[in-house]
Predict the structure.
Amino acid sequence: MSTVVEGLRYAESHEWVKVEGEYAYVGITDYAQNALGNIVYVDMPEVDDEVKKDEEFGAVESVKAASDLISPVSGVVVEINEKLEDAPELLNEDAFGNWIMKVKLSDIAEVDTLLDAKAYEAICE
Amino acid sequence: MEELIKTCLYDKHISLGAKMSPFGGFDMPIEYTSIIEEHNAVRHAAGIFDVSHMGEVLIKGTDAEKYVNHIFTNNVREIDAGQILYGMMLYPSGGVVDDLLVYKKSSDEYFLVINASNIKKDYNWIVENSKGFDVVLENQSDLFGEVAIQGPEAEKMIEKHLQIKVSDLGFYTFKELDYKGRTILVSRTGYTGEDGFEVYAVPEVIREVWDILVGSKEVAPCGLGCRDTLRFEVALPLYGHELSEDITPVEAGLSMFVKLNKPEFIGREVVQRQKEQGVMQKVVGIELQDKAIPRNGYDVEMEGVKIGYVTTGYHSISTDKSVCMALIDSQYATLGTEVDIRIRKKTFKGVVCKKRFYQKNYKK
């Protein structure tokens, strides 16, 4: 059973966003990790890369296939979660507890266009 | 689109909560728990696969031996009844119709096991080429269910839970035996690189075998996901990837299954020439230094120029390395050659290596 965390915002492409001031953490949802199966590699952006809403910023690879990561927000990458380089399976173990990138937002209003927990839960059914 | 076919074990997969996916026209289980867990169960203990999607064709008659040798690259005259050969059926071009197992029941009766996705094409091919041969052909694909029990513990599990003796079976041999009053065919074969067995029987028997072994909790139900990672690590080819209408067995590095010591078979001229003069393209192994994963269809490049493509690639579960098989220009196929693989927007360095990434563990 997929769980959804209240207070986060979600993209239809199954990424979550947690906003803290002018920054946002971005990860993949529990639904996404479950659909992918064993995650064995995360292709992450680099610090200072520019990301754009609805554009690809990397990929998550399961044993079987690669899936693009789509950025739910626009901005500049200020940090990546280096733990995932050696332990990509953390996304299977706790998708909401392991962010992939931290972005300095260029347009905080974009966040309002994302789904809330209830709306995201509905599209996962 | 045609409706997906359900195997005789379909309801078992659903009740085990398998992730299902189309494969070769069938609705097949990809994984039950996780590909990695199931892969490791087969490498270190025992797993059971539903392979009822595989096709079976029976060839009988006074010309059966002559006919099988006409359409098959290996030489069935050289084996005894009860033995099995792996090989291919070729087009006159040398390209592959399918790769298959041939079970010799007697010199006038052969049982062919073919790939699910090729059943119709193969059977048409077998019928078309039989003109002038005294043979009777029967597509028995709908008659049989099949399970593969694979792993170092497979023999023990079968003998313990099914109460049948299989320890006397040698590698690539088979026997038909009575199981509670019904005939089953058991062979010491598989597609994982581990010791193991394949069991063919009518659906109700296959369902019973499945229930007993899965119910024992000592044999893990395994999906097609790990079947592919297992066969890949030991460089067993998959039709449509390492072998196809456009890839000959010689190009795939499978010459040992092509026997030129018989007067003729379809495709012989081309593969004989390739064996003597060499090939333009070859299937090789490539190991990446990075963790990025080369996937089927990705380009292999040399100084920015495409020299081939990945046929199958994974982050190998058993060796923890990103590796692939790739079809590339022969001039770059020497072991140790450095190549680039294009993965999304970047290229990654790789080195041509042996295709066998993991040592087979057969009991011979």
In short: Chain A has a mean pLDDT of 95. The interface with chain B takes residues 37-38, 40-41, 43, 59, 61-66, 85 of chain A (CB under 8 Å). The longest helix of chain A spans residues 117-124.
